[in-house]
Specification:
The structure is a homodimer of 343-residue chains. Chain A has 343 residues and is of the alpha/beta class. Chain A contains 11 helices and 12 strands. Chain A has a 6-stranded parallel sheet, with helices on one face. A 4-stranded parallel sheet of chain A has the order 7-6-8-9, with helices on both faces. In chain A, strands 10-12 form a two-stranded antiparallel sheet. Chain A binds a DNA duplex (30 and 30 nucleotides) through helix 2 and helix 4. Chains A, B: This is LacI family DNA-binding transcriptional regulator.
Chain lengths: 343, 343
DNA sequence: CAAAGTCTTTCCAACGTTGTAATCTTCAGC
DNA sequence: GCTGAAGATTACAACGTTGGAAAGACTTTG
């Protein structure tokens, strides 16, 4: 059977509690005793039983990360960043995939596995602002994403409006004026799509241009195939445009592929910028300009906030909102020689 | 505080053990009693304490998946497949990233978290055949990948040699004869690189062609940037070739990008096929022919085997080897009009 | 209608750990 | 050398659950 504290205690000729004290760095242990215990631990290869510890202490040192889909590059990279941040602080991460489904998200939030974790990072997709009442669970939680603001818990997100505005401005500065807002969700006000559309509008306004509704292209699901599909329709419709502000990188890449198939040159004929800075954008042909949403900062902050809540260190603090810094990443897909191209 | 069995028992006016029996579907419970208990559970919102259950039963229903890197599309998709397979059987997955480092892999294998899981799926990268002695841990384990064969545990892998041979043949059939083996590791015999090179050689041999060592291109790390880098050197060297058998999709995509930059047309000038069938291959320009390694089958089989070991159902069975079915996926990057192009 | 089953429920102990409080040891101060 | 305080160690109980076996209820059978 597995080695327990009992065995270690026996080997070191101390009580079980002393072993526990050594392991947990309690004060008041004679150096000689500590030595002896550590030696016994080493010799027997003792490793604590985490279930027992969890039972007794009420802590498991496990946190849960709820995301829509690991196969989606953005979330894979987010998961990696979260796991790295958590690992630094000695926590393990369980990833739960929701598929972006409302039902599934609720299932997970209220499921039995919540009882096995100390806290949750919940990247909301299926639920929305109107569901804010449903997310008040006993487990400490930090929200991610753009679907729910001002909920009962801390919230970490990116600067959607500002970033989208900057992306749009980036194209405007390069002399493009007929810009598609690619990936809109017509009836959405908040949510990534709604906010990014708002940023797009503001940039146009600042530049003294009118918002033209036909240039806002709906793409329901933000996968590459959807981007390709939507772009195919745009081209068939004969709509005129010279730039694309895509609301994420995947649909940008899908659209880019379709445009190239149709003989359009990027960036000469059409300039395009995406959102998320997924790894692939550095290797596409042409490389894709995009927005770095501050993923690492988001992960670090979210984990730190969650641990504060778990430790009770932020008990009195009201729900916090944090927006990460973003950056415009300029690559080939917007590399246009232009008089207006400023440094 | 949280609701426990004690509260449920009280509410249903039965003993704690009866509640436990109901939850665990023990036989011999009066229908009326079961009803009453379930009602109480529902009403109080009881959820079992998994730490306590784990402590008492020795089972946590958690399995660990050790992979090199989540940001790598192949492993993200593998993780997704494993999580789906595990979820079907009521298990949770903890992902541990090793970075492919030998030290880190050993750390994880012998770390305290192994004590919190029922079993491990270990996608070997840092260790090798010579380390076979180091992986004999008490936790049930199933190995994945091509680094260790005939270890002390079950092993699930793809048909590397056969698949690589088929990929090579695919190009040969299309009239290409000067084929790069792209992604070789010179001194490796087993390991994906070694096996895939072997498949490449066999296909040449079957076609009556000589193996030319200068056509085997070393690419140490199989990331896109490494593929790009290696291809740049090949082009500079002036080496002549008309086809590329890339040992994974990422380096294929990197290489493709570089070749296109250099004005080479794909597939007209150079035909190229990859390995892994990652999602991106369906959307690159041109779309990339590749090998579907049977990822879903690998995940399903590995999880099933692991659970058999955990349940002790396969106690007497010696270590098993399983090779998944593969498929050649023909896409644009090898779509060459040719007399020899067979159906 | 008693004996012998079969179902159903309960009691008790244990899993391995840590918090609390009590006990034992050491050492300074006089 | 004695007192008291601080330092080091230990005993005990408890966390919430489940396995094993005993006890209670009900049914069948001769």
């Amino acid at each position: 059977m597995a080695v327990t504290m009992r065995d270690v205690a026996q080997a070191a000729d101390v009580s079980i509690k002393t072993v526990s004290n050594v392991i947990n760095d309690h004060p008041n242990i004679k150096a000689e005793t500590r030595e002896r215990v550590l030696l016994a631990i080493e010799k027997l290869g003792y490793q604590p039983n985490l279930s027992a510890r969890g039972l007794r202490s009420g802590r498991t040192d496990v946190i849960s990360l709820i995301i829509p889909d690991l196969k989606n590059a953005y979330f894979a990279e987010l998961a990696d960043a979260v796991m790295t941040a958590a690992s630094k602080r000695g926590k393990v991460v369980i990833i739960e995939q929701s598929g972006g489904s409302r039902t599934r998200e609720l299932e997970i939030l209220h499921g039995p596995r919540m009882r096995m974790v100390d806290g949750v990072l919940y990247s909301v997709l299926g639920l929305g602002q109107e569901d804010v009442g449903l997310i008040d669970i006993p487990t400490p939680m930090v929200l991610l994403g753009e679907r729910i603001f001002h909920g009962p818990t801390d919230h970490v997100t990116m600067q959607n409006i500002e970033a989208s505005q900057a992306a749009t401005k980036h194209l405007l500065q390069r002399g493009r004026t007929k810009l598609l807002a690619f990936g809109a969700h017509r009836n959405e006000v908040i949510g990534s799509a709604g906010l990014r559309l708002e940023g797009y509008r503001r940039a146009l306004q600042n530049a003294g241009l009118d918002y033209r509704d036909e240039l806002a292209i709906d793409v329901q699901s933000w996968h590459r195939s959807d981007g390709a599909q939507a772009m195919r329709q745009v081209l068939e419709s004969g709509l005129e445009f010279d730039g694309v502000v895509a609301f994420n990188d995947s649909i940008a890449l899908g659209a880019m592929r379709v445009m190239q198939d149709a003989g359009l040159r990027i960036p000469e004929d059409i300039a395009i910028i995406g959102f998320d800075d997924i790894d692939e954008t550095r290797y596409s042909l042409p490389t894709l300009s995009t927005i770095d949403p501050g993923r690492r900062q988001i992960a670090e902050t979210a984990v730190a906030m969650l641990l504060e809540r778990i430790d009770g260190a932020a008990e009195a603090t009201p729900a916090r909102e944090f927006e990460a810094d973003f950056k415009v990443i300029s690559r080939e897909s917007t590399a246009i020689k232009s008089a207006e191209d400023s440094a």
